[in-house]
Amino acid sequence: MIILDSEVGNYVTSGGKKFSYFAGNNYLGLANHPLIKEASIRSIEKYGLNFSASRQTTGTSGIHLELERQLSSFKKKQDSVIFASGYMGNKILLRILREEYSALFIDKCAHASITDGIPHDVSRVCFYDHCSTEHLESLLKRTKKYKPLIITDGLFSLTGEIAPLADIMHLAEEYDAIVIVDDAHSTGILGKNGRGTVEYFFLESKENLYQTETMSKALGAYGGFIAGSTELINSIRGRSTIYQASTSLPPPLVSAGIACLKIMEEHPGLRKRVLDIGRQIKTEISGLGYKTTPDDTPIIPVFFRSYENAGRLSAFLMKNDIIVPFVNYPVNIERFVVRITASASHTDEQVDELLNVFKKWRNKYGTDNN
């Protein structure tokens, strides 16, 4: 475990030492933006640290409503609802939509928040091969007596792959399914306006498609949200025990969210910058002989067959003053991953040094692909 002694930017301090930081999910570099810090400080001065109540009682303030208005505008939806953590979003939607499905179809590499969110009364849960619409269709064909709900990550946090959402939606229409896409890692990144995989695939008009999202990645703040129709959002507010019984999002985080949205929308070049950096790293890593994935995203996995070699590479990078973690998340993949994450705040010099260290490792130890 790496213990940080500083804010998260393109550099961090750990144990009193400065490191180039290619980790975490601060894709647009907003987590330590001075305007966001200022907004949070002003919010603490006005409201304190915590409203100390649930939204349904005395925990709602004007800034909560303003953030929800801003998120609705950003997503081009009728309404939105915020809650304590993006991790909760899949559980909330799977419960709210429970009467509309009797079987779940889940990508085998789905985030833990998806599998943790499965309602206890769902008896039919099918896992399809990672990003395989062929396998998904075969499962749908065999379970026609059930009402299907398909759920997947939009951008997979460990592998940087974009789910084949357009093909999934074709199947959903053919088999009368509803679809949930967890867009935690693609909101703020993918699509013309950063609205995620739904915008990326031009699917925003689909009424049987739902998104769960977070402000803790590209948006640089914290807290989960769901945007959708007035009917859906009212249903969440009226029926979700997670929403009703949780303490409301603290004032500095709410104000940070409002400020982050403003900066992100005013500076679309940040999104282009991080995608360009990710593309460059991925291309050159692959050119060095390492195995990675092809999609243009800020997440660049480096795959290893050996647990030991993955850990050694991460340690080698750290000895060279670069943090790139060996990620051992609870995700069902057969390879070990050293995960590089790009940020719009990275400099060209940092990228060059990262690639030089990967070249040094390859020249000394190989790439573990044989």
Characteristic terms for this protein:
13 strands, 39% helix, 13 helices, seven-stranded mixed β-sheet, Aspartate Aminotransferase, domain 2, Aspartate Aminotransferase, domain 1, 2 domains, three-stranded mixed β-sheet, 370 residues, alpha/beta
Number of strands: 13
* Name of the top-level CATH class of the largest domain: Alpha Beta
Strand order of the largest sheet: 3-9-8-7-6-4-5
CATH superfamily of the largest domain: Type I PLP-dependent aspartate aminotransferase-like (Major domain)
Distance between the termini: 29 Å
> Over the alpha carbons, how many angstroms does the gyration radius reach?
21 Å
**Coarse structural class:** alpha/beta
What fraction of residues sit in β-strands?
A: 15-25%
What is the CATH architecture descriptor of the largest domain?
Answer: 3-Layer(aba) Sandwich
Please mark out the parts with pLDDT under 50 across 5 or more consecutive residues, or reply none.
Answer: none
- Give the ordered list of helices and strands: EEHHEHEHEHEHEHEEHHHHEHEEEH
What fraction, in percent, of the residue positions are helical? 25-40%
Mean pLDDT: 94
What number of structural domains do the residues give?
A: 2
Major sheet: size, sense and barrel closure?
7 strands, mixed
Would you tell me which CATH topology of the largest domain applies? Answer: Aspartate Aminotransferase, domain 2
Q: How many H/I helical runs?
A: 13
- Overall geometry comes to globular
